Amino acid sequence: DGKKILELGDGVLDAAISPDCLKVAVLKDSGTPAHVRRPDARRQENQARLEILDMASGKLLATFAEPLLNEGLAWGGDSSTLVGVAPSRQAVQTGAMLVQFNIETGTCDDLVPGLQPILARDSGDLVFQSRDGLYLLKANSKTPSFLLHDRALQDYRLTKDGSRLVATIHSRNDFAPFRYLVVMDVDNPNRRHLLDDTLRGTGCDLVDPIQ
After folding, report:
1. Which residue, 35, 67, 91, 204, shows the most beta carbons closer than 10 Å to its own?
2. Half-sphere exposure of 124 (CA within 13 A, CB side)
3. How far apart are the first and last CA of the chain?
């Protein structure tokens, strides 16, 4: 039937397929404590190592010495760059730093403190979580801008061009908590459009890709 199982080995924490479907990034538990705790975490995370595998053969294409946390992987639209989350004592609010790997050159660069990165495939804009909310880092900028208070957020995805954000958001009613699926303009996050009010009380799992 044309289907093939790609063996990733033991200790897999997370995996992400590149946009061109030729590579898969895999986070594997190293068994070494990260020594950096997230503010909202109750347990100490272990460091993870990053491996890049060929999708067709399973061959190991690259591995990176930079230790990572199991806090999300985001491929760039060109399938040659990847954003992950590294433990960092300098990142006071989150205890974690977003880092960008170049698969072709093997280099790794610090971006900004944060967690749970998502990249817009066409624009290269980056959305991520910090302790106090959701932030946007434009591809041509080094200063992130605030988008949304974290307490209201359930899940989020970017459109390919980075112009809009689709999110599941909690209502402010603590006695009857609902969840709404909304879309918002990244340049004007206060302008929100309700997509579906039938999801109230049920939540929603968002999947890629969002057009």
Report:
1. 91
2. 11
3. 29
The per-residue pLDDT for 209 is: 39
Please tell me what DSSP assigns to residue 88.
Answer: -
CB 189 within 8 A of CB 148: yes
**195 alpha carbon, distance to own chain's centre:** 23
What is the average pLDDT value for the chain, to the nearest integer? 77
Yes or no: say if 159 and 166 are a contact pair by the CB < 8 Å rule.
Answer: yes
Could you check whether the bond before residue 39 is cis, i.e. omega within 30 degrees of 0? no
pLDDT tens digits for range 20-67: 999 999 998 887 776 555 544 444 567 788 999 998 888 999 888 788
Q: What share of the chain is helix, strand, coil (3-state, %, to 5)?
A: 5, 50, 45
How many angstroms separate the CA atoms of 184 and 194, rounded? 9
Q: Which two tokens stand for residue 36?
A: 């950096």
Inform me whether the pLDDT recorded for 86 exceeds 80: yes
Residue 142 CA to residue 158 CA, distance in Å, equals 19
Q: Give CA–CA dist 90/96, Å, rounded.
A: 8
The amino acid present at 177, given as its one-letter code, is P
Rounded to whole angstroms, the Cα distance separating 67 from 37 reads 14
Tens digits of residue pLDDT in 136-181: 898 888 889 888 775 566 678 888 888 888 877 766 655 555 677 7
- Residue 190: predicted pLDDT: 74
CB 160 within 8 A of CB 58: no
